[in-house]
Amino acid sequence: MDQLSDVLTAISHPTRRAIIGQLANGPARFLDIAKPFDTALNAVTKHLKLLERAGLIEREKRGREVLISLRGEPLREVAGWVHEYERFWNERLDQFEQHFRNKKKEKK
Amino acid sequence: MKDAKKTLEVRVQRTIPASPGEVFDGWLNPTVPGNPWNAAEKFILEPKVDGLFFWTLNDTSHYGRFTDVERPARIQHTWVSPKTLGEESIVTLTFQKKGEDTLMTLEHSGIPDTDAGRGHEKGWNHFLDIFPGQFGNGSRKEK
Asked: Which of A82, B11, B31, B130 is buried deepest, with most CB atoms within 10 A?
């Protein structure tokens, strides 16, 4: 799968979205991430693997601890894809509006 | 059982410093920058109900048929392109008088979701709700 598909898969599950929501507040240790969920630790591990495959999280070793943090870049790719037509129409309408503003200036 | 097709919708608005009639005419005038036909390498434009349009840019062709042409208030046409997977989506433009200006609203609805996106729309909305900062300048999308 391409990265966009990986990201869409990753954000399709409520638990993974909740994990991302949690990590948006800052990096966390695995057990802190798992604490709010009423689910087995290996299920959380699987969710984290999917998030990692999508490039949405990264792990960093600090001393004895491994901190997991959120990476926002792949989310922007999703936003760009969702908003492709939005971008197209905004660009068109920006030009259209500018045309009328120029015309108004010329009249003055 | 057949699932209903998921679609996306885009809505953009601008306040244009001209009357609704001028803005309406400008949208259908290929010499005016910003309308879809202005940038086209080739185009056909027949802006009346059941009239057709075609335009092509960078080897990508767009087709549609006008379903409503009501000067100066409203234009509606279908929109078919490779990005709509050959399906008809709907573009609706409205022009409302706002003092000396015109509030122009463009809604593009029925944009088919693709296989990759199917089933993820809730996920995107959730993300757009909780991570506005992550998405850069995408705030003009209303839905």
From this structure: A82
